[in-house]
Design goal:
Layout: E1 16-20, H1 27-41, E2 46-51, H2 53-58, H3 60-65, E3 68-71, H4 79-89, E4 96-98, H5 105-114, H6 122-129, H7 131-140, E5 148-151, H8 154-162, E6 168-172, E7 182-184, H9 190-195, E8 204-208, E9 213-222, E10 225-236, E11 244-249, H10 255-271, E12 278-286, E13 289-296, H11 304-311, H12 317-326, E14 338-343, E15 349-355, H13 357-361, E16 366-371, E17 378-379, E18 390-396, H14 399-411, E19 414-418, E20 430-431, E21 446-462, E22 465-479, E23 482-491, H15 499-514, H16 524-536, H17 541-559, H18 563-566, E24 574-576, E25 579-581, E26 594-597, H19 603-610, E27 617-620, H20 627-640, E28 644-646, H21 655-661, E29 666-668, H22 676-686, E30 688-692, H23 693-696, H24 699-711, E31 715-719, H25 725-732, E32 740-741, E33 757-761, E34 769-771
Parallel strand pairs: 1-2, 1-4, 2-3, 25-26, 26-27, 27-28, 28-29, 30-31, 31-32
Antiparallel strand pairs: 5-8, 6-7, 6-8, 9-10, 9-12, 10-11, 11-14, 12-13, 14-18, 15-17, 15-19, 16-18, 20-21, 21-22, 22-23, 24-33, 33-34
Length: 787
Amino acid sequence: MTSAPHSPEPLPDSPGLLLIGGGGDMTLSVDVAVQALEQARARGLRTHVTNLAATLTATPAVTAAADGASAVDFTRPGATAGWATARGAAGERPAVVFGVREMAQEAVAETARALALPGNPPAAVRRIRTKDACRAALAAAGFRQPAVRLCADEAEARAFLAGSAGPWVVKPRDGVDSAGVRKVTGAGDLPTALAELPDRGVPFLVEEFVDGAEYSVEGVFLGGAPRVLAVTAKEKLPPPYFVEIGHVLPAGIPEDTRRRIEDTVTEALTALGLSFGLFHVELWLTADGIVLGEVHARIGGGWIHRMLPHARPGLELYGTVYDDVLGRPARLPATTRAAAARYFAPPAGRVVAVEGWEAVRSHPAVLHAELRAAPGDVISAFRRGGDRVGAVVVGAPTPAEARELARRLVDSVRFTVEPVERAEPVEQTDPVEPVEEPNRGPGVPEVCVTLESRPLTRSFQISHMTIETVDILRLRLLSGGGSTGEGEIAADSGYGQDGPAIAAEAEALALALATACDDGEDPVAPLRAGLEKAAADGVSAPARMLVEMAFLDRAARLAGVPVWRLLGLPEPGRVQLLHTVPIGEDVPVDGRPLKIKLGGADDERVLRSLLGVDAPLILDANRGWDRQDWERLRPLVAELAPAVLEDPVRDTALLPGIRAALPGTAVVLDEGVATPSDAEFAVGAAGGLNVKLMRFGGILPALTALTDATGRGAARMLGCFLEPPRAIAYAAQLAGLCDWSDLDGHFWVSDDPAVPAYELDSSAPGIPVISYGSSRPHHAHGEALPV
């Protein structure tokens, strides 16, 4: 097929650009391809695009931007090179061979070599696209790399896990968009991870998980030498998946760190034999230094191709490459501004309504905005790049302002969804469709799970999101027409907690445990074993916590004791609370211990307002600070001398210096602390941890982490998400094992009064209830709970 000519049209004898692989049939890929073609045309280059026939048909904007187009399969080795060689023999030889898609880079390199044009060596491109080969080459050149193994099956993966340090990551050997990439913490996670690989039966990679802040480096080769254009800060959703949800460039890092990153990346690119086009290199900043990740011979995704020209006004990414090939002066304007991109992550289900979108589209700082989710559409859980339903790209004077604006705009768009299995919106409290229960015995309880979307009493803002609603999930064990055990939690999609998926997991697990429940002398041991197996099988922590609550409540009721006594825990007594102050809220001065949420653009003002406050201070940045932020705020933090500093920085390499600067402050880690091994790392790196049952999967696994932390003399905080009172009371049974109790999340979920402390009423067996010292009953057991 041939596109319609453009005006002005290049002369017939003009040099040409061959764009191999065109653009994929996604908005971002089409946008990249059209820009590459337009920048060629602006330089007088005639353009011709090749792609698979079906993709050419699906991307009319790309073919319309080119002077000509041909169906050539770039995935077949040698096919594009052979086609281009034949055209060259007929007098149609391009001056530049280029490609913007990951999967086309080998064809680009082969074709450039066949036509004796500038390009990367095909062997070098194959090496970086084969991830284990790239790791081996980088390690051989002296760069830090995680241990990795190419595995043919689960047995080989288990062998690698047995001989290496975890946690680990399972990923395709050659893939894009984080598809099939999953974190595993043990051999029991492997079946689930392997089932999610995009190509079953094909060798895959297992590598050691790297713990550190993630960045990427964007650049261009000029005269065969790499030139860095920006270091980009990356934000990802929590494991087990690694899908990116936001980017900021330039990254807000100290100048010496930026120079070290640039030097490392340029040396690595040279060692790998790359010398042409654009590059995108991923890396981690760890306690031991820079660890290089994947290397790509193209610009980064995530709308980086729009962010860079805003940050460097006048930059033309693709035009710079063409100018270099044609021997023309290449212009690299200075960085004078910042930009950020952020993706929407609505809960999975069928869209009922979307509010706030038009206001985002019309915001003057928006460089690009798209939303591909309308009422009636079904949204998948956000696990890979292909699950994205839209993005907002903004420009701002500084990286911090750009990041905050992108987050605020994305958070301002509100989605109402309903589970695909049901016709009614989630605001209706309806039971999840029951799983068939064959062979139910006379003593086996029935299982009932319900889900309700509940707005918060007021917005809750932390460094990386603003929360407006949560999904309330309740699980009841029913016998003889009444409830014998109940659990209740809240799921927040901002933390990757998918309410309908958790409900389905919890119901299936509860049914499996109900048929094997043991009401004998030790009901806890079989429950513990069943939950440990569920964890090994990949059942999510929130689902396991919900099930654990219901079954421990049942066991304690049958035994006639509160849960804490059933488990041999110290009596909680009076629970002294921290008073959590989200970003943007006024700081109270009533003497209560204050937990101040930081990590926003206004941190310095907030910290100054705390000078002279006569109350213990707990400062929580939710990993919102980088090295530059810490150095700027350190004098104020040191003057305040907080009792606790929680999750101050993304880069754990900064923790030793922070601890040394604050000798009287307990430093604790929270984000990412979800297993005993995570807890062990937190104790070693920071000297303390915050334990949240929703991350660990309940009281039983959390006890392991707390017991070890106690033995090592670590600071211990008991935390929560925004959760209903029953879940808070359940967690509060561990208060006697911790130094601090951050258990006030129910004040945003229910109409309970905010108080400095409460007691647990254990007068009835099972899960205690919160008592505020009044005669008002609060969420009694059994049928007194709202149904």
